[in-house]
């Protein structure tokens, strides 16, 4: 039996004013883990931001659980967790305040998972700090922990191993291996090279 599609893209195209990034991309992503693979500048981040609804596609359609971005944008976006890893938007929040903000958006937020997530990502010593006090890697880990707890239907992780220590990479891989087995959430992660640690259900290859 094939799993039902959660995230659907039909003939999706995206261009910056001076060049085309991708054209007529069609996707039918079921629950589990999908990897976007591509070399430098191939469009991984742009594709993620189009799927989130932050960048407007130049053509095509997107739907999550049958809710179309062009018809019900707010309801579509409510189903998506994505944080630009470089954002400074949450810098003035403490780690618990950041998680509270995620919980306010995603009612299925799993508070009970936080201690294990913080431990697995070696964030426990930083658990009360404000985000601006954290290193790039620790901040990225807070956003990853937020994703893992949020319970969103679609989760987009841009280069999730970047700036992470080996033990956190192993932990993220284990968490994603668990999410590969469930039936309600799509996990899309972009990488320069498909990592051996991650068994993806689907791969979107943007080339080198
Ligand atoms: N705001 C922008 N305006 C114009 N071109 C852009 C813009 N942002 C990115 N680009 C270009 O679009 C292409 C795709 O960029 P994107 O960041 O999506 O690729 P990527 O695969 O995520 O790259 P990397 O792995 O280097 O982060 C690149 O050629 C990039 O230089």
From TrEMBL:
Name of the protein described by the UniProt record: ABC transporter
Domain ABC transporter: 7-208
InterPro entries: ABC_transporter-like_ATP-bd, ABC_Transporter_VariousFunc, P-loop_NTPase
PROSITE patterns the record matches: ABC_TRANSPORTER_2
One Pfam family matching this protein: ABC_tran
Keywords, ordered alphabetically: ATP-binding, Nucleotide-binding, Transport
Annotated SUPFAM superfamilies: P-loop containing nucleoside triphosphate hydrolases
Top-level lineage group: Bacteria
Organism: Herbaspirillum hiltneri N3
């Amino acid at each position: 039996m094939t799993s039902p599609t959660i995230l659907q893209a039909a003939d999706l195209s995206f261009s910056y004013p001076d060049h085309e990034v991708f054209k007529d991309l069609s996707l039918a992503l079921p629950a589990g883990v999908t990897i976007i693979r591509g070399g430098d500048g191939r469009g991984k981040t742009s594709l993620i931001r189009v799927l989130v609804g932050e960048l407007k596609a130049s053509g095509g359609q997107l739907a999550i659980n049958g809710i179309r971005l062009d018809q019900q944008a707010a309801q579509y976006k409510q189903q998506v967790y994505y944080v630009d890893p470089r954002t400074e938007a949450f810098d003035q929040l403490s780690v618990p305040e950041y998680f509270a903000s995620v919980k306010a958006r995603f009612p299925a937020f799993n508070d009970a998972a936080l201690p294990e997530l913080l431990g697995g990502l070696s964030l426990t010593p930083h658990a009360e700090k404000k985000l601006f006090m954290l290193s790039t890697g620790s901040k990225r880990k807070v956003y990853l922990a937020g994703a893992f707890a949020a319970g969103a239907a679609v989760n987009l992780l841009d280069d999730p191993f970047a700036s992470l220590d080996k033990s956190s990479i192993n932990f993220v891989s284990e968490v994603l291996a668990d999410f590969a087995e469930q039936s309600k959430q799509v996990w899309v992660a972009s990488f320069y090279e498909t990592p051996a640690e991650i068994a993806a259900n689907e791969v979107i290859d943007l080339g080198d």
